[in-house]
Amino acid sequence: MTLTVPGPLVDVDWLARHLGAPDLRIADASYMLPVWDRDARREYAAGHIPGAIFYDIDAVARDDTPLPHMLPSPARAAAAIGAMGIGDGHAVIAYDSFGLFSAARLWWTLRWLGHDNVAVLDGGLKAWKAAGRPLESGHVDLPPATLTPHPRPELYRTLEQVQAELAGGPGVLVDARDAARFRGEVADFRPGVRSGHVRGARNLGFGTLLDPETGRLLPVEQLAARFRDAGLDSADKATAMCGSGVTACVLALAAARLGHADMAVYDGSWTEWGGRQDLPLATGDD
Q: Max Cα separation, the chain?
């Protein structure tokens, strides 16, 4: 029988119990913003959960656009992930070194490809270390596997789709960036990208959904309150965005914890919208 994840999140104890299972794949999906001057792959090599591969977000990306880590076609994405050793018969656990930052991007990507047997390690590497669990160093290379794509286009939004929904569609756009970036109070760190937000978008900073000490998602009751406060009584028709489509996936993961498993993500996010001089923006709380 294939190992099955119990939901969108697993805890350290669950992962420790199943460590070494032949149909389990663990992926360190840490991603570092360019301004941090950190190397995710080097940190992975220095210490990772035993058996974990390194998931390079930029190895599963289009090469015909300057926008960062935009998803390629489902066939190309599935082939790239399969080359890392993740395939149809595998339960996949994604984690990152922060607690929860970029791991949700792999979770969302696999679900977009139709692979539901995937979860995020709650608290990530921080929680694993805090529990006194072992680490290993070096790199893990797994034999290639076949990952068959069964695309879910409803989980993915393009610029044109977002524009159509803002022009009168049923959806709601929610921005996962922190309030200062959303309001345009600080300059964007990416060259050529303006400050502000998409007019009409709501702000729900992904960091407000996490325990600041552990990096874990807040309990369900608190998550629900955060969504209500942002005007998101139902996330079923919402589209999440952020700076470059990474932390937007944290909102999608939190929505799944609340029973709304199909929150879409605008992949180009603010790097695309804010980088276009012909698209309107807003600042402050507009």
A: 53
Question: Assign residue 115 a region: left if phi > 0, alpha if psi is -120 to 50, beta otherwise?
Answer: beta
Residues sharing a CB contact under 8 Å with residue 32, sequence separation 6 or more, in sequence order: 38, 39, 40
Report angle CA 262, 85, 122 to the nearest 5 degrees.
45
Q: Residue 65 to residues 58, 264, 268, 271: CA-CA distances in angstroms?
A: 12, 21, 10, 12
Active site residue 242: yes
Q: Residue 34 and residue 246: Cα distance in Å, rounded?
A: 13
Tokens 């929680």 appear where?
A: 127
Contact 155, 112 (CB under 8 A): yes
Q: Which fold has domain 154-274?
A: Oxidized Rhodanese; domain 1 (3.40.250)
The proportion of the chain whose per-residue pLDDT surpasses 90, expressed as a percent, equals: 90
Q: Which of 242, 246, 250, 265 is catalytic?
A: 242
- Is 9-151's fold the same as 154-274's? yes
**Is the CATH number of domain 9-151 3.30.479.10?**
no
**Amino acid letter, residue 9:** L
Report pTM: 0.96
Least trusted range by pLDDT, from 89-93, 106-110, 237-241, 269-273: 237-241
State phi, psi for 135 to the nearest 5 degrees.
-120, 160
Spans of all domains in the chain = 9-151, 154-274
* Alpha helix positions (H), the chain: 12-18, 40-46, 74-83, 103-112, 124-130, 159-166, 179-183, 220-229, 248-257, 269-274
